[in-house]
Amino acid sequence: MKKTNCKIDPRLTGCLFALLLFFSSAVYAQNSRIVKGLVVDSNNESIIGASVRIKEDATVGTITDVNGNFSISISNNNQTLVISYLGMITKEVKVAEKNQLTIVMQEDAKQLEGVIVVGYGKQKKESVVGSISQTNGDVLKRAGGVSNIGAALTGNVPGVITMQSTGKPGDEDPQILIRGQSTWNASSPLVLVDGIERPMNTVEISSVESISVLKDASATAVYGVKGANGVILITTKRGNEGKAVINVSANATMKSPSQLPNKLDSYNALNLRNRSIESEMALMPSAWNDYLPQDILNKYRNPTNLEEAERYPNVDWADVLFKDYAMSYDASVNVSGGTQFIKYFAGGEFLSEGDLFNSFENGRGYRSSYGYTRVNVRSNLDFQLTPTTVLSTNLSGVYGKKETPVIGLDEYAFWGAAYYTPSDAMLPQYSDGTFGYFPPDVSRAINSVEAIARSGQNFITTSRINTDFTLTQDLGFLLKGLSAKGTLSYDNEFVEVNRGIDDMYRDVQTKWIDPNTGEIRYQKEYDINTGFDFMSPLTWVTRGGNMDDGATYRKTFYQAQLNWARQFGKHDITAMGVFNREEYSRGSEIPHYREDWVFRTTYNYDKKYFVEFNGAYNGSEKFGPNYRFDFFPSVAAGYIISAEKFMKWAEPALDMFKLRASYGKIGDDNVNARWLYLTEWQYAMTAKMGP
């Protein structure tokens, strides 16, 4: 049998392959097409950054643009689009033969409210057995007209009481109580920002993701000696994978006095005095000397010229001192997004607050007033170094500048005239520029206009920078469900004071016109130093400012944490252990030290029966060597009755019915002094140890 060998020309093979590729591409091109769509929420507002992918091919996907639009290529009409977005219910849409889609997404209430931030971690809402309330940044934004988180919490979190005692720009942070006053020394709750103890005013409202308020001992026991007055946990926003999302907001707030003193004007007050004299003439005949004829009373109400207006004053002190309204402006911008390697959130806020006090011309080249401006910046970054390692960095800063008159011994002089000074005592300032005074009672009938106008200017500048570095490592390769986290943070704050104009204790001329005689009486007729006629010297000086040593603050904080969580059938178990230490000081004082050892373990069976045990072993250098550490435990149990089969009849009217019981021990080391356990000896001088 003869064998025949067939050889194929390589060039022919290449042509056949190219021809096959051409036809296959043509077939694919005939089947594939572009589908466009719009993703909106239930309010018909565009959703920016929503993920759109093909269910059958996870490698093909896109995200919506700033207008909520997207376009994606599909290979056939049987494919399904999967649309997802944080806080929304994931939706699947069959493409079929449609070329344009409009997709309406609904909020996922379970996802939004299903996780609660607790001390040193997070828990599912259903498993929380302590008393914890949580709100989010969107709720705080709706408060409107407030410039700080404390004021925005008012009425938004059960059990939280806020009391604001001043409306001065820059000092509007309210006093906060959780379930009333708990301790004698101080009742302010512990405030933590991203797990670090910091002032609440270092965070702008637009950067808040959530706020949790821990109210009972079972929830606050992990903070031991610092948790007696409750705990507020502020979590700031972080970036998500996707295109950059930019949010801009601007607010203008008009502030007006809620209530001002309502005093009688000169005419009505003096007329009332006349009637009293008429009624009591028989008892006190000498009172007739103070009785004013009607024509004199009319001059208080309707003076005919400048001379009468100055001799018979009729001053509405509240109207003179206060504006009808003051404006406050707040603008913020933030951007968030990320890739698989880095996720970012960056934001900034500018705040400018005016005040209700008027400013007055004093002829001395400056005007005293109240005001406040603040700039907040924040940058939160998350780096996915490896599939199991995440490095997070938080950098935030605050720059605030507060303007006030130079306050002497008593700020009462700035507003006292609105409450106590009679309307007929004097004019605040006469036509020649001289301020008024009231010789019959100088101490009580004060001239608040003069006090404000010549009190100088004082600028207080606060600069604060906070830095956090957190490394999170999944240790599942050692033990399933195990992870570790380490945190290092540095805080620094500098306060500059005494910058501005010092015009205190420099006399100015004041006068009073006696309404009975028309005599002009000057308070200072001659200069006590020279004996010549008194002249108001323009001897105020500018002050360059200096650092407030007692307010300069620095803190170092480091923490190590282990977490473990596993589920075995219907059994869900978690455990957590924490060690942290902080060192902080103000000015040149000896640093303060604090150390905490914390643990928590939780167990739940079938998502119906819950038990939690917490403990904190705290150390504080405020106490003697044998009393510096103490243990603060707590235990809590919960039972969701609504999860039982015999309660199904009550759904959906009763979808959650939980019984909780807890017991805990917490403490307080806020004794406002240090080294009270030491015996101090003094001789011929005072001794000071600490602040």
Overall description:
It is a single chain. This protein has 691 residues and is mainly beta. The protein is 12% helix and 41% strand. It contains 11 helices and 33 strands. The strands form 7 sheets. Strands 17, 18, 19, 20, 21, 23, 24, 27, 28, 29, 30, 31, 32 and 33 form a 14-stranded antiparallel sheet that branches. A 5-stranded mixed sheet has the order 10-15-16-13-14. Helix 6 runs antiparallel to helix 7. The longest helix has 22 residues, at 10-31. The radius of gyration is 36 Å and the shape is elongated. The termini are far apart.
Question: In terms of topology, how is this protein built?
Answer:
Blueprint: H1 10-31, E1 33-40, E2 51-54, E3 57-63, E4 69-74, E5 80-84, E6 91-94, E7 100-104, H2 109-113, E8 115-118, E9 121-124, E10 132-136, H3 137-141, H4 149-152, E11 160-163, E12 175-178, E13 190-193, E14 196-197, E15 208-214, H5 217-220, E16 231-236, E17 242-255, H6 266-279, H7 294-301, H8 306-311, H9 317-321, E18 326-338, E19 342-353, E20 371-386, E21 389-404, H10 412-415, E22 435-436, H11 448-453, E23 457-474, E24 482-502, E25 510-513, E26 520-522, E27 541-547, E28 553-568, E29 571-586, E30 592-605, E31 609-620, E32 629-640, E33 658-664
Parallel strand pairs: 1-7, 13-16, 22-25
Antiparallel strand pairs: 1-4, 2-3, 2-5, 5-6, 8-9, 10-15, 11-12, 13-14, 15-16, 17-18, 18-19, 19-20, 20-21, 21-23, 23-24, 24-27, 24-28, 25-26, 28-29, 29-30, 30-31, 31-32, 32-33
